[in-house]
Amino acid sequence: NAGVTQTPKFQVLKTGQSMTLQCAQDMNHEYMSWYRQDPGMGLRLIHYSVGAGITDQGEVPNGYNVSRSTTEDFPLRLLSAAPSQTSVYFCASSPRGGAQYEQYFGPGTRLTVT
Amino acid sequence: QQQVKQSPQSLIVQKGGISIINCAYENTAFDYFPWYQQFPGKGPALLIAIRPDVSEKKEGRFTISFNKSAKQFSLHIMDSQPGDSATYFCAASIQGGSEKLVFGKGTKLTVNP
Fold it and tell me: Do B101 and A42 touch (CB under 8 A)?
């Protein structure tokens, strides 16, 4: 199993550009989530999904969209990038429908918005 | 509003010493408390977790102590090794709740040889 994969590893965007961060898992996990990690701020939940077709907002959802059309994929869309979205983004999945079990994290995408 | 407060922000320990990281929470509905370990350039990985029906859980050199009345839990790393140097995050969630895992801000641990 590849586990949780994220692409790209690094990305530089200009203010106002849009892009999609890709996340895929091959473990048939129901629960997937997106976090951003900023120095001194820990991991903050952006959006999460408890199954295909179901998504909900986390702590910091503004400026981001998600969809979950398949069990395997959970892309994160930045509609109009802003410098405040410069961060490291992690996707995670869990083998059960909730945050009560081990989260498997991907390797992260480092995004810089200029 | 930060729901899980973690301290210290950074910690330096000598090889063989004990590393202690503390977390406090306000929401008494939290009932799952994991600790994650993150090495530079990598994603976090689950280290150890506890539920409030026990006061302590030990896995090798890592121990979680849980004090329900004080709403605090801590991670103890015995015989700390340079390979333990990483950032550690505590977290909390609610069974049957909003399906959100809330993280502390992290502690950067450095173990000197």
Answer: no
- Site from A103, A104, A109 to mutate, B interface, most B CB atoms within 10 angstroms: A103
Q: How many CB pairs under 8 A join A and B?
A: 62
A45–B102 C-beta distance less than 8 A = yes
Rounded CA-CA distance B51/B57 in Å is: 9
pLDDT (mean) for A55-63: 94
Look at B6 and A42 and tell me if their CB atoms are within 8 Å: yes
What is the C-alpha to C-alpha distance for residues B10 and B40, in angstroms, rounded to an integer? 15
Residue of A nearest to B2 (CA): A41
Q: A51, A106 in Cβ contact below 8 A?
A: no
Q: What distance in Å separates the CA atoms of residue A34 and residue A3, rounded to the nearest whole number?
A: 15
| Neighboring chain B residues of A36 at a CB cutoff of 8 Å | none
Give the pLDDT confidence of B25-74 residue by residue, as tens digits.
Answer: 998 888 889 999 999 999 999 999 998 889 999 999 999 999 999 999 99
Q: SS3 of A44, please?
A: strand
Tell me if A4 and B43 make a contact (CB, 8 A cut-off): yes
**pLDDT recorded at residue A106:** 97
Fill in the DSSP letter of residue B15. Answer: T
Is A31 in contact with A50 (CB distance < 8 Å)?
Answer: yes
User: Which helix H or strand E contains B24, and what residues bound it?
Assistant: strand B19-25
- DSSP at B68: T
Q: Which tokens belong to B29?
A: 């509905």
Give the pLDDT confidence of A64-99 residue by residue, as tens digits. Answer: 999 999 999 999 999 999 999 999 999 999 877 566
